[in-house]
Design a protein that fits this description.
heterodimer; A: 421 residues; alpha+beta; 5-stranded mixed β-sheet; two-stranded antiparallel sheet; globular; B: 113 residues; two-stranded antiparallel ribbon; 3 helices
C-alpha cells in the first residue's frame, strides 16, 4: 500500500475518533499517533489525499482529520477545502429535507417501510455530515405496499428512471431545480448467483417488526430495520458491490461506526446464525478486521461479530482493492463484470451473460425462445460499452475479474458450516 | 438575549454553521460563523438568558482581548444573529417558520409554513 493511502486511512481514523487529537503532546498529557514527520508528509501529500477523498466521497472525513492535526495548510488548498466542505454540508441538509418528505408520504399512506443505509446511519458518525449521501433508500418488502407506494410517489411528481436491477426502482423528484433520487427497494439487495442466499434473504427480510428510530438533530422519526438485520444488510450491501465493481472506504466506515454505535444491541447468536447460514462468516471477519486494522475499530467491539482472522497479506490486498475502486468501483473501468464464485471457467462467464441478459431485458427474458437473441444483444452491448463508454478492452476486464476472484477464495464466500469449496 | 433553539451549531473541523435543521431547507437561512462566534453561541445556549456583557466576558477570557473590543464584537454578533432570526430578546417572542413536534410543518409544501 502506498504511503498516501496509509496516511489517508489514518486521517479517517482520526476523524472518526473525536477523542484522539492526533499529535502527542511533549509533556505526555495527550496521546496521538501522528509524529512531526507524519504531519510533514501529510502537507506534502495533500493533493493526493484530496483526490483520494473525492474519489471515495469522504472529503468531510479527511477535512476533519486534517483539522485535528492543526496543520497550516496552504491558503489556496484551505480555501478550496472549506468551499467544498460547506457545499457538501448544504447538500446533506437538502437531502435531509428530501428524506423528511419521503418519510412523511409513507407515514401518511400507512405503508410498512424500512429506511436503509444513508439516513439510518447518520447518527452513527461523530458529525452526521461526514456520512454524506446522494439518495434516500427505502425498503418496502410487501408487494401490495410497494405498488401503493409507487402510485403515491408518482402522484406526488416523482418520475421513474430506467435501471437494470431487480431489487429497486429509482424515482426522481425535481425540487427547486435539483433532482433528488429515491431508491424504492422491494428487496434489500439484487439477486445474486447463489439461489440459496437469495431465498434466505427474502425470508429474513419479510415480516420483520419495524424498529422505530430517530434522528434527533433534525427531529426525524422513522422505521428502520432491527439492529441485527440492519447490520446484516450493511454486510450484504458491501458484498453486493464487492461482487460487482467493488466499493470504497465509505462503506467500511459505515460498518465501523454502526458496530460502535449499535454493536451492543445486536442479537449476537442470531447474527452468527445468519452469517453461518448464508456463508458470510469469512466476509464479515474480513470487513471487520479491515476496520480494526486500518480505521480504528476497537477490538472489543469487533469481537461482537468477528469469529476468526484473515491472512494479513490478503487483508492488505483487500484494502487496496477497496481504495483503488473509488466509490462503488467508479474509478476502475475494468471492473464491470460481476464475479460469481471462485471459478473463472467459460461456464461462469456464460452464467454471467445470462444474468446480465435478465437484468437488461427484465420483461422480455420471460419469453424463453427469445433468449438466443437477447444473449447476443447483451454481449454486443457489453463489447460496445467496453469500447465506447468504459474505453477499455474486454481482455483487461477479464484479467481484473481473475485478480479479484483470487481475493474471493480468501473470504470462503458462500461456504456454509461443514461445506468445502 | 436568548438563542433560537431551532438552530443547531454544526462544526466540521474549523467550519461552524448555524443550521435550522428542523425547518425546510433554505440556503439563505444557514449562517456561517467563526470560532469566536461558535463560542458565543455555546455561551448563549448555556444560559436561559444572557447579557451582552456576560458573553463578552467569555471572549475576554478566551482570547485575552480588552473588554471594550469584546463588547463591541459581541454586540455586533448578537445583532447579526437577531437579524437572521437565530437569537431574540427575551421580551420579543420568536416567530420561527415552524414549531417542531406541533405538526405545523408540512414537508410537502415546505415554504408555506
Amino acid at each position: 500500500m502506498t504511503a498516501e493511502k496509509e496516511l489517508f486511512c489514518r486521517l479517517i481514523q482520526l476523524a472518526l475518533h473525536p477523542e484522539n487529537n492526533g499529535i502527542p503532546s511533549e509533556d505526555g498529557s495527550q496521546t496521538g499517533t501522528f509524529s512531526k514527520e507524519d504531519c510533514m508528509l501529510t502537507i506534502q501529500s495533500l493533493d493526493a489525499l484530496i483526490s483520494l477523498a473525492e474519489e471515495q466521497n469522504t472529503l468531510l472525513l479527511l477535512y476533519t482529520g486534517l483539522c485535528r492535526l492543526n496543520l497550516d495548510l496552504p491558503q489556496e488548498t484551505d480555501s478550496f477545502l472549506r468551499k467544498r466542505v460547506i457545499s457538501c454540508c448544504y447538500g446533506c441538509y437538502q437531502m435531509l429535507d428530501f428524506a423528511r418528505l419521503v418519510i412523511h408520504i409513507l407515514e401518511e399512506e400507512k405503508i410498512n417501510y424500512y429506511v436503509l443505509k444513508g439516513i439510518s446511519l447518520l447518527s452513527c458518525y461523530p458529525d452526521f455530515e461526514m456520512r454524506g449521501y446522494g439518495d434516500v433508500d427505502i425498503l418496502v418488502p410487501r408487494e401490495k405496499d410497494f405498488s401503493r407506494a409507487m402510485k403515491r410517489f408518482q402522484a406526488e411528481g416523482f418520475q421513474g428512471k430506467r435501471d437494470f436491477t431487480d431489487h429497486h426502482t429509482e424515482l426522481l423528484l425535481n425540487r427547486d431545480g435539483r433532482n433528488f433520487l429515491l431508491e424504492l427497494h422491494n428487496k434489500v439487495i439484487a439477486s445474486q448467483d447463489n439461489a440459496y442466499l437469495n431465498k434466505k434473504i427474502i425470508k429474513i427480510y419479510t415480516g420483520l417488526p419495524p424498529h422505530t428510530d430517530t434522528f434527533a438533530p433534525a427531529g426525524l422519526q422513522y422505521q428502520a430495520l432491527p439492529p441485527t438485520e440492519n447490520a446484516l444488510h450493511l454486510l450484504l450491501h458491501m458484498l453486493q458491490h464487492f461482487l460487482k465493481s467493488g466499493f470504497g472506504i465509505r462503506l467500511l466506515c459505515d460498518w465501523r461506526t454502526y458496530l460502535e454505535k449499535h454493536g451492543s444491541e445486536l442479537d449476537t447468536a442470531l447474527f452468527a446464525d445468519y452469517l453461518t447460514d448464508l456463508g458470510l462468516t469469512g466476509f464479515c471477519n474480513a470487513m471487520t478486521e479491515l476496520c480494526v486494522r486500518y480505521i480504528g475499530l476497537p477490538e472489543p467491539t469487533a469481537s461482537i461479530v468477528m469469529s476468526g482472522h484473515i491472512n494479513p497479506s490478503a487483508l492488505e490486498e483487500l484494502l487496496n482493492d477497496i481504495l483503488s475502486a473509488g466509490q462503488f468501483g467508479k474509478n476502475d473501468v475494468s471492473r464491470m463484470l460481476i464475479m460469481s464464485d471462485s471459478h473463472t471457467d467459460i461456464g461462469s462467464y456464460l452464467h454471467q451473460l445470462h444474468r446480465q441478459m435478465k437484468n437488461r431485458f427484465q420483461k422480455l427474458h420471460h419469453i424463453i425462445p427469445l433468449w438466443p437473441v437477447l444473449w447476443c444483444l447483451t454481449g454486443i452491448c457489453f463489447l460496445w460499452n467496453n469500447h465506447f463508454l468504459r474505453k477499455t478492452t474486454t481482455r483487461n476486464i477479464l484479467q481484473t475479474v481473475k485478480q479479484r476472484q483470487r481475493l474471493l477464495k480468501e473470504l470462503h464466500l458462500y461456504q456454509r458450516k461443514g461445506e468445502k469449496q | 438575549m436568548k438563542a433560537n433553539r431551532d438552530f443547531s451549531l454544526r462544526s466540521i473541523g474549523d467550519i461552524h454553521l448555524l443550521v435550522p435543521l428542523k425547518e425546510p431547507f433554505q440556503k439563505e437561512r444557514i449562517i456561517t460563523i467563526n470560532e469566536p462566534g461558535a463560542l458565543l453561541w455555546k455561551g448563549l445556549l448555556g444560559h436561559s438568558a444572557c447579557t451582552c456583557e456576560e458573553l463578552a466576558d467569555i471572549l475576554v477570557q478566551t482570547y485575552q482581548i480588552d473588554k471594550a473590543t469584546a463588547l463591541e464584537d459581541t454586540h455586533a454578533f448578537l445583532s447579526f444573529l437577531e437579524a437572521q432570526g437565530a437569537a431574540f430578546h427575551e421580551a420579543t417572542a420568536p416567530s420561527p417558520a415552524i414549531h417542531p413536534g406541533t405538526g405545523a410543518y408540512n414537508p410537502k409544501n415546505p415554504h408555506s409554513s
